[in-house]
Specification:
heterodimer, A: about 350 residues, alpha/beta, Rossmann fold, 2 domains, about 20% strand, B: alpha/beta
């Protein structure tokens, strides 16, 4: 088989449902078709929106496949059928979607990787709140923990990221007119993502992210930072570790810095941990790997000195840690490695990553 | 001396009242693009069409000298008040528009100088007159014509532009919408055109980044106003805001270097703060002045704060400004066991919503 050049990925990025991502994507699909590109719709989510449904007409659609799960029938994108049809380009709505269990791949973005690998160009849609590294900031802004996330490296791979912009006021107007959701759901939505302050903040995030994506693509060719930065993030069983990983990765990506994640265990593996702790540490290590962070388990009795030694040997310039818990007892604090790491790491910056819980409103 | 950075309730009230007063003035919406041909005019006039179809009283007050073919059918169904001709040029017909007094007036192209002899030297000032007369204005502008960005734009395009609009006018807009589309790329190019085309794409990408960041800044400004006027204490951190805390003897170089890189990469804001200490020596005072001068030269905002407890003072200030990252120096002299009792320990402990970056000194 001859080597296929990888397909190109274009993402239509918005900040909320109803800004017009799918519409814009279908509009482009029509333009491509008119220009002679062999393009099909691989997956399209109409949400009952009439103008969007009208836009999907006149495009070849690959039927979805049905999957039975726990007595119900679900519909998913039929990746195999698209591969068999092998168009030049394919429209795939809702990039962050999680497929029903029993599907060949857990995430739609993984299906998209398969299409790209087969040399098919993909047009897709997503909202900013699904970007993994912004998960805590989005939680802080909206009070919603978004579960369906896309690792940042997947978005970075895109050849183009386009913002589909609409002012929050116009969006709220659309929502109230019932263009976005039917009544009951619209009212529910108004309580959560669709508060005006939330929309404005999410929109700002989307614009800044798009600016960064543009800069990232220019920098690939020209700019380099003067000093080379290397980031290390400390992994423990503390549930806040996920926040430290996301933050380290985000700062690392913006600085063009390499990222490592390490955990320190006396035995050099996770066998010495109680089951709950072992599961938590494993989950955090996996999470880091999914974000394309290299992970290590270090052997050592003393967490702080093992981390700082590793940092020194590997020219680490910044160590990211979670905020120590247990402020009430000085004893617990003194045992927390953060204090000792700050004391030992005389040549590294230490970043104590904050909690970003939403305040009650 | 009053604590800097915090607004008194009276100030807030005044601001909110000013905004309410502004609400009786016409409302300004801006479509921002980064190059000609990205579809600003079409998007804007399509909005005119939709408003007209909904029965709004809509008038077009200015169109571009050359009307692209896709816009002609839109214009056919809209009322256009043509530019008025004067001796050596044209300008929007402010008097006729105010006499006609539509609900919404569309102005395609904000950045024009009026011919000499007219009441206002520029078109954006004419638009201000329309707004003051209570007419809602929807206008388009290309990022290349923003006055404050001329240095960047000239560097990117090599062209000097004389007709510009001040950024303060754009920031005064009630709504801004970005028309985003990546530079178009033909699929195949002859090899001799490849290099030239790549340069063009880079130029356009850099302009696109400028436009996205400006739009994000406008949105950020709106977000802060919204939060303040609704008395919301919630800080959203959609933009990165860095606060570098210094003392007279702080080793500032590394802190400032890092702060500048992060601020630049995230298009964020950089502030350097010092908490006034009573009775510092003249040596310390001049050391401090030197550090503040360095910070100021680096483009940071400088804040001298007053307060009995340095950590509390810094945190209060940081919260009032929505700081997301605190930078502090830590001398090993403090001693390990005393970290949690020290001001830095307090900063780490109470800095909810902010990361603390500790620099060894």
């Amino acid at each position: 088989m001859t080597e296929q050049p990888r397909g190109k990925l274009k993402i239509f990025m918005g900040y909320a449902a109803g800004v017009g991502k799918t519409y814009k994507m279908l509009e482009e699909a029509h333009q491509l078709k008119a220009a002679g590109v062999d393009i099909v719709v691989g997956y399209f989510e109409p949400h009952g929106r009439l103008d969007t449904i009208a836009k999907s007409e006149g495009l070849e659609t690959i039927p979805r496949k049905t999957i039975d799960y726990r007595g119900s029938t679900f519909e998913e994108m039929d990746t195999d059928a698209i591969l068999a049809r092998h168009p030049q380009a394919c429209v795939v709505d809702e990039f962050p979607h999680t497929s029903v269990p029993g599907s060949p791949r857990a995430k739609r973005w993984e299906d998209v990787q398969v299409l790209l690998d087969a040399g098919i160009d993909v047009l897709t849609t997503m909202n900013i709140q699904h970007l993994e590294s912004l998960n805590d900031q989005v939680w802080n802004i909206s009070g919603v923990r978004v579960r369906e996330t896309i690792p940042d490296w997947v978005v970075q791979q895109a050849d183009e990221v386009v913002v589909v912009d609409l002012t929050p006021r116009a969006l709220l107007h659309r929502l109230k007119r019932g263009v976005v959701y039917e009544r009951g759901k619209a009212e529910q939505a108004l309580q959560k993502f669709f508060r005006e302050s939330t929309l404005v903040a999410l929109r700002e995030l989307a614009l800044r992210q798009a600016a960064h994506e543009v800069e990232h693509r220019i920098s690939n060719v020209t700019v380099q930072t003067r000093k080379h930065h290397k980031i290390l993030v400390l992994i423990t069983a503390n549930p806040k570790t996920a926040m430290a990983i996301r933050r380290a990765k985000r700062i690392g990506d913006f600085l063009g810095a390499e990222c490592f994640a390490v955990t320190v265990q006396p035995s050099g593996d996770l066998s010495g941990l109680a089951e709950a702790d072992r599961e938590a540490v494993e989950r955090h290590l996996n999470f880091a790997r999914n974000l394309h962070i290299e992970t290590r388990i270090l052997e050592g009795e003393d967490m702080a000195s093992a981390v700082v030694d590793f940092g020194r040997r590997n020219q680490i310039t910044q160590i990211f840690v979670t905020r120590p818990g247990g402020w009430s007892s000085l004893h617990a604090l003194t045992r927390d490695p953060v204090q000792k790491i700050i004391g030992l790491a005389k040549d590294m910056q230490i970043v104590i990553v904050s909690d970003r819980e939403p305040l009650a409103q | 001396m009053r604590e800097v950075g915090r607004k008194t309730p009276e100030e807030l009230l005044r601001e909110c009242q000013a905004q309410e007063a502004a609400a009786t003035k016409g409302h300004l919406k801006i479509f921002l693009g980064y190059a000609s041909g990205v579809g600003k005019s079409f998007r804007m006039l399509d909005e005119a069409r939709r408003r007209r179809e909904r029965g709004q009283d809509v008038v077009v007050g200015a169109i571009q000298p050359k009307v692209p073919p896709e816009i002609e059918p839109l214009l056919k169904n809209l009322e256009v008040i043509p530019l008025k001709r004067v001796d050596n040029g044209t300008a929007i017909d402010v008097e006729a528009l105010i006499r006609r007094h539509p609900v919404v007036c569309f102005i395609d192209g904000l950045a024009y100088n009026n011919p000499p002899g007219l009441h206002n030297p520029t078109r954006w000032q004419d638009v201000q007159d329309l707004l003051n007369a209570g007419i809602k204005v929807i206008a388009s502008i290309n990022i290349q014509y923003v006055a404050e960005l001329q240095k960047d734009v000239e560097e990117i395009t090599g062209k000097h532009v004389t007709e510009t609009v001040p950024v303060s006018f754009i920031k005064s807009a009630d709504e801004i919408e970005i028309v985003d589309a990546p530079p178009e790329e033909p699929l195949e190019r002859p090899p001799d055109e490849q290099a030239e085309a790549q340069k063009r794409d880079q130029r356009l990408s850099r302009l696109r980044e400028l436009a996205l960041v400006l739009a994000a800044d406008v949105v950020d400004h709106q977000l802060n106003e919204y939060l303040e006027c609704n008395g919301l204490k919630q800080q959203f951190g959609a933009n990165e805001r860095i606060l570098v805390c210094i003392t007279p003897r702080a080793n500032m170089q590394e802190m400032m270097e890092m702060a500048q890189i992060i601020a630049q990469r995230f298009h964020g804001e950089l502030t350097v703060a010092y908490v006034n200490q009573p009775n510092i020596s003249s040596v310390d005072q001049s050391a401090l002045d030197a550090r503040l001068a360095i910070a100021s030269a680096a483009g940071a905002h400088i804040e001298i704060l007053e307060g009995d407890d340095p950590a509390d003072t810094l945190l209060d200030f940081a919260r009032s400004r929505g700081i997301t990252q605190l930078f502090v120096g830590h001398t090993q002299r403090t001693g390990l066991s005393r970290l949690w009792g020290s001001p830095i320990g307090k900063l780490i402990r109470d800095s909810r919503g902010m990361d603390v970056r500790v620099f060894p000194q």
